[in-house]
Each structure stands twice: as C-alpha cells, then as structure tokens.
Amino acid sequence: MGKKGVTFDEKRERMLKIFYDKKEVFNLKELETLGGKAGVISMSVKEVVQSLLDDNMVEQDKIGAGNFMWALPSKGRQIRMKKLDELKNSIQEIKTQKKTLTQQINNQLKDKPESSERLEKMQELRSLISQIQEGQKRKEVLKSCSKGFYDECCLKYTGLRDSINQITDNIFMAKSFLLSRNPGLSSSEINKHFNIPEDLDNI
Predict the structure, then answer these.
(1) What is d(CA 186, CA 115) in angstroms, rounded to the nearest whole number?
(2) Which CATH architecture has domain 8-75?
(3) pTM metric for this prediction
(4) What is the pLDDT of residues 23-73, one digit of tens each?
(5) Quick one: 167 exposed, middle or buried, by C-beta within 10 A (0-12, 13-18, 19+)?
(6) Which residues form a coiled coil (predicted)?
(7) Cα(53)–Cα(163) distance, integer angstroms
C-alpha cells in the first residue's frame, strides 16, 4: 500500500507549529525551507501560509522590500475559541428553528379542519376494505359452484382489490410527501391525525 499523502489541514498544523515553536519572524523563503523539513513541500508552503493569513492565524507586515510573518499561540487559541462559540451558536439556532418549525407544523395539523373530500375518501376506503374482507370469506364457498360463476366472481373481486390498492397507494404517496416536507413529523402522528389505520397495507 502506498504512503498516504499529507492533507491540507495537516500542512496548516505543521506550519503553525513552526511559528509557535520558534516564536520568530520569517519571510517566505525561510518558511519554505522550514516547511520542507516538516514534511510540507516547498511549492505548497505559500498556499498553506496564505490560508493561515486569510484565517488570521498568522500575522504579516511589510518591512522594507520584504514581507515578514509570525504567529502567536495565544491568538491561535482565541481564534479557535471564537470559532467554537460561533459553531455552538449556529447549532443552537438550527435546533431552535427546527423546534419552531415542528411546532408550527403540528399546530397546523391540529387546527386544520376536517376535509369533506378526505372524509369521503376514508369512508370509501373503509367500505372497500369491508367488501374485500367479505369477498375473501365467500371465496372458499364459491369454489364449490360452477366454474363460470366462480370466474365471474373472481373477476369482480380482482377489480375491487385493484381499487383498494390504488387508494392505498395514494395514501402512502401523500404520507411520503408530508414526511419529506416536514422532518419533525412521524408516520404515527400523520396516521393519528388523519385516522389512517396503523396496519394499512396493499391487499
């Protein structure tokens, strides 16, 4: 297995360590030499140091015709603590937003009036389920009848089953849409609010 290369973050840490350990002021040429000894190829030192300058981890000043750089461990700790605080605040804001959004969705579902169309569909579904269950009970009895009569009943049964499965699929699609748009909701909450049986499934 080949030797794993040094990542950009590791290069940053190594260059920072040079500043912190030596506590001196350097120009770019000196940093390229020291970086090479620390395992950071000289061609990438400029890019790495520039990223540290951009993040205010390293200071730079122009003295005469040259640019000189240095870094203080105390400032590095301050910057890290500041970033940590910012991340904590960001996480807390996200949690608060999620809680607020979830509460709003729950309130909307709770306060939403019963839709006559939805009630009609649910009633239709219950009726179809009842019919299919009755049809399943009669199926064994019908086997003793003539083949033509039995085939006719099976055809009606199949059509009834397809109708139920179509409505069931529509309900599942609607639930999936609600869940994808409202991460705070659970399938059980939707079932409870819309009076959907927990064991609802295709026949």
Answers:
(1) 21
(2) Orthogonal Bundle (1.10)
(3) 0.40
(4) 889 999 999 999 989 999 989 999 999 998 988 888 888 888 888 988 887
(5) middle
(6) 84-111
(7) 67
